[in-house]
Amino acid sequence: MWHIDPISLRLFIAVCEEGTIARAAEREFIAPSAVSKRIADIEADLGVPMLHRSKRGVTPTPAGQALLRHARQLMLSMERLQGEISEFAEGARGHVKVLANISSIMEFLPESLSSFMMANENIRVDVEERFSFDVVRGVLEGQADLGICRKTVSTSELEFIPYRRDHLSLVVNERHPLAGRSSITLGETLDYEHIGHSAFATLNSFMQNTAQELGRELRIRAHVSSFDAAYRLVQSGLAQTILPREAVTRYATMFGLKVIPLTDAWAKGEFVICVRDQEALSPSARRLLNHLLAEIPT
């Protein structure tokens, strides 16, 4: 019978996430030969290959994917155990992993995390940016304690807690013909070219569908992958764009932008926090969840 070794599990997870033994070894500060030995020992003990090996690197076999899923859950459970016991002995301490979409990071999450960590100096919080669909997948697979994503990607396999809202707006520079408007519909913007966002598949779909319903064409001048790139292109006068008001307002003066609220029904967005099981959260993760919910604007 295979005796579970936390160090070997951690190294196996690193190899799967990094795609090569060399990168995993560098990440874990250990010799590549030692990593290879650990993986070989797992395969020998379980009697089945865990990795497909090629010149490009390694990928988990079906058996390896099963081990990876359970290994992540075991490592998170061990962290929760350590954190909970530490709280009895030393007060609040621990490590919380958060997956968040770009909108939440640009709009409000840094301020909430900053206030949390200042109030909880012994709790480390790691945040990784992902698309909303990948946030859900990551939490489901045990890669993180909490996820912050759009409500539109909710699934019955996780618990989803209502969190925050945002409001899409047209963003133009001060010289744009629409800069004087106080509100607007997407249809009224279609005479002018737009900047699209590669990270917002849902927004792109809403815009395309609305244009089609109106019998109009949504003309995309360029696609960008970051908010900053969109601000700069709008500032230069290349085109207009649609972004959450909450993400743009603080930069509007810096870039000379006008932020005009969209009145379309789909322009109001909702964020949720996703977890596998609230009752199973570590004390540190539960503390962060409560903090995030307490900071929701009234």
Any overview of this molecule?
The strands form 2 sheets. Strands 3, 4, 5, 6, 7, 8, 9, 10 and 11 form a 9-stranded mixed beta sheet that branches. The chain has a two-stranded antiparallel sheet with strand order 1-2. The protein is elongated, with a radius of gyration of 23 Å. It has helices spanning 6-18, 21-28, 32-46, 62-90, 102-107, 109-119, 132-140, 201-213, 227-236, 245-255, 283-294, and strands spanning 51-54, 57-60, 94-100, 123-129, 146-150, 159-173, 194-197, 220-224, 240-244, 257-261, 268-275. A hairpin with a 2-residue loop joins strand 1 and strand 2. The protein folds into 3 domains: 6-69, Winged helix-like DNA-binding domain superfamily/Winged helix DNA-binding domain (Arc Repressor Mutant, subunit A, Orthogonal Bundle), CATH 1.10.10.10; 77-164 and 270-294, Periplasmic binding protein-like II (D-Maltodextrin-Binding Protein, domain 2, 3-Layer(aba) Sandwich), CATH 3.40.190; 166-267, D-Maltodextrin-Binding Protein, domain 2. The protein contains 11 helices and 11 strands. The protein starts with 5 loop residues before the first helix and ends with a helix. The chain has 298 residues and is α/β, with parallel strands linked by helices. Helix 1 (6-18) packs across helix 4 (62-90).
